[in-house]
Amino acid sequence: MKKVVLSITLVFLMAFSVFANDNELWEKSTLNQVMKRGVLRVGMEAGYMPFEIKNKQGEIIGFDVDIAKLMAKEMGVKLELVNTAWDGIIPALLTKKFDIIMSGMTITPQRNLQINFADPVVVVGQTILIRKELAGEVDSYRDLNDPKYTIATKLGVTADFATKKYMPKAKLKLFETEPEAAMEVINGKADAFVYDLPYCAIFYAQHKKQLAFLDEPFTYEPLAWAVRKGDPDFINWLNNFLAQIKGDGRYDMIYKKWFESDAWLEQVQ
């Protein structure tokens, strides 16, 4: 009888311990902190069309912004956008300057060592804009792997890494922002601009007279929201939220607005 009582006691203690650990995990969860605070703080770098960019009034708009607004609404909290330089965006997340990164961030093994990602929101890849005169001479990234060509892109992003990996022989010019790098081609100071498909497609639409567009992606890059490690409750909520808006049509409405229409360009030109 004593053995039975002891066994029951041990099972009870183990169950209580698991409950206590789970409850402690929830108390520390970012999601719980957001609910208590009443504000969802989203980190992003305003400059990556069409994900996030400033309009003529200086407000941040874009695909990620519309999704963030919807996310905050579903949580029943206010939204605060925290504009952060790209090279400091992961450290800012880790030091709790904001709750989540929603900024067209590509999932990479290296980043995943520091932070966790929710399910991919959009899948893109690297594409290339070239000087109009090079059309026919340059048909793919392989043709650019030559010391006679100069390639421009943004510092510290996957386009930077992809260029170094696939076109190591070319000269590489790195810039702090996407527009600076892309304008090098327009101004004749670079032969090509390497970057994600959505950005290149939009920039090409604005400068068709000066550019040719190699629009077949040569890399596979899933973009996702990033959060701090050790937060399964937040990841669970984010994945279910994404599945829900993809299932009920709200995601498609936002996607079409920013990726299948250029009407929004009037707000930023």
Kindly estimate the percentage of residues that lie in beta strands according to DSSP. 15-25%
Question: What proportion of the residues is helical, as a percent range?
Answer: 40-55%
Would you identify the CATH H-level superfamily of the largest domain? Periplasmic binding protein-like II
> Under CATH, the topology of the largest domain is which?
D-Maltodextrin-Binding Protein, domain 2
Q: Main β-sheet: number of strands, strand sense, barrel status?
A: 5 strands, mixed
Structural class determined from secondary elements? alpha/beta
How many domains comprise the coordinates? Answer: 2
Distance between the termini: 81 Å
Q: Would you count the extended β strands for me?
A: 14
User: How many H/I helices?
Assistant: 11
Keywords: Signal
Domain Solute-binding protein family 3/N-terminal: 39-262
Main location: other
Protein name: ABC-type transporter, periplasmic subunit family 3
